[in-house]
Predict the structure.
Amino acid sequence: MSISMTRRHFMQAAAAAVLSRFSSGAVAESQVTGGSFMRRFGDGRDWFFEKRFGMFVHWGIYAVGGWHEQHMFRKKLSRAEYLPMMKQFNPTKFDPDKWLDIAEQAGMQYITFTTKHVDGFCMWDTKQTDYNVTRTPYAKDTLAKLADACHRRKFPLCLYYSLADMHHPNYPAAGRSYELHTPEPGDQPDLARYIEFVKAQVRELCTNYGVIHGFWWDANVIKYRDPAINAMIRQLQPKAVINNRGCDDGDFGTPERDWDASVNTKLAFEKPIEACQAVGYQSWGWREEEDYYSDAHLIRSIQKVLGKGGNYLLNVGPKADGTISAESAAILHRVGKWFSKVRESLIGVEPAGALTTNRDIVLTRRGDTLYVHLIKEPETCSVFLHPLTNQPRQATLLNTGKPVTCDVPDLPRLHSQTPDRCLRIKHLPVNERSTAGWVVRLEFDKLPLSICPAER
C-alpha cells in the first residue's frame, strides 16, 4: 500500500474490509461491487438474499383449543387428554390461495409452514404415523394443498419441523421443555429409533412436495447433532436454506421476538439471519383472545431487521376452520400498506450505519442515496446524522412523498465535538402523525462509504 494513498481510497478499502466480515460460515461470497453489498451462498439458496420478508404460519390441531401452539405442553396434558383436538379438527374453509393473497398484499415473498410442532401432530400425509391430518375429519393433506398453491404461484415454500415430539413412543422424554414429564405407559424411549423416524419424515417432506426452499428446525432440546441429516436435505432440495436450530449450525441464525439484544446493538448482521415475530404477543398459534402487538411495534421491528441486512418472518396462526382471523389479516394489511411505500429503502440496499453515531436510527443506502429509518420515537422534530456533513440535493419523507428540509448548522450540543456541525433533517411533522416506520430518502451527489469507526 502506497503511503500517498488518498483519504478517499483509504475509506473505500476500510469499508470493504469491514463488509468482508460477512464472508463467514456458510456464506460463500461477500463484496462491495459498485456500491452494492452482496452476500451469496453461490448456489440455489441465494433466493434467500433476494426475498427478505416472509410469512410464518403456526397451524395444527392446537387451533381447536384457541389458546396456544404449545397447548399440550403448557397445560401438562396427557396424550389421551389432548387427542380430542385431533377428532375435532376439520378446517373446511382452508384455502391456501387466500393465505398467499394476504401474504402478497403484505409484501411477503415466501412462506414457512409448521409441518409438525411439539405435540407431534403431522400436518401432511406421512406414512410414518397415523397421528396426522389425513386421519382427522378433514382427511386431506393440508401441506399438499399449500405446496400446490405455492408452486403454481411461484411462491417459495419452507417447512418447519419440531424435533421435540410429545406423541412418539420412542422419543426420550425427560421433562425438559416441550416434552412429556415422563414417558407414558407403553412407550419405549429409544433415541436411535426416534431419529430414524425423523429421517424418514424429513425424506418424505423433501421428496413428495416439489421444490422446497427452506427447512426450519425447532425444539432440539435433546441437543442431537448429526450433519448427515442436513446433508440429506441439501441433496434432495438444493435450494433449501436451513436454520441453526437443528442437528448442525445450518445456514442462518434465528433471533426470536425481542429476546436477542444483538438485533438492537449491531449495525449490521455479520452472518445471515432470519428474525421471527408473531402478530400475537401471547401465542404463535391461533388464540381466541389474543393480545396483538401494535402496528408501530411490528413495523419498527421489521424495519430494524431488514435495514441491518437480515430476513424477517412475521407469523400468523390460522383458526381451526383454516382461515386467517380478521384481526391478523388487518394487521398484515396495514403492515403491507406501510411496506409498499418504503420498500425501496429495505430491499436491494446495504446497511450504512457506519455513516453516523446516531443509534436511534438505522441507515441503508443504494449508491449515493441514503435512507434514514426512524426506529425510535424521535425526541425532537429533527434528526441528526453526526458526523456526516454532506448536504443532500433532495430529501423526501417516503411515507408521505413530501419533501423535507435539511441543513448543516453549527449546533450548540456539538461545540466540543469534531466536527461541531452535522447534517440535520429538520421540521419533521412528528406531532401530526405516528412516526412508526418513517423513512427519509436523502439523495446526494456524492456520499462517502464510511465515516465512523467500525462497531462489532
The first strand starts at residue 29 and ends at 33. Confidence is low (pLDDT under 50) at residues 1-26, 28-36. The CA atoms of residues 23 and 195 lie 33 Å apart. The chain has three domains: 7-40, 44-345, 351-443.
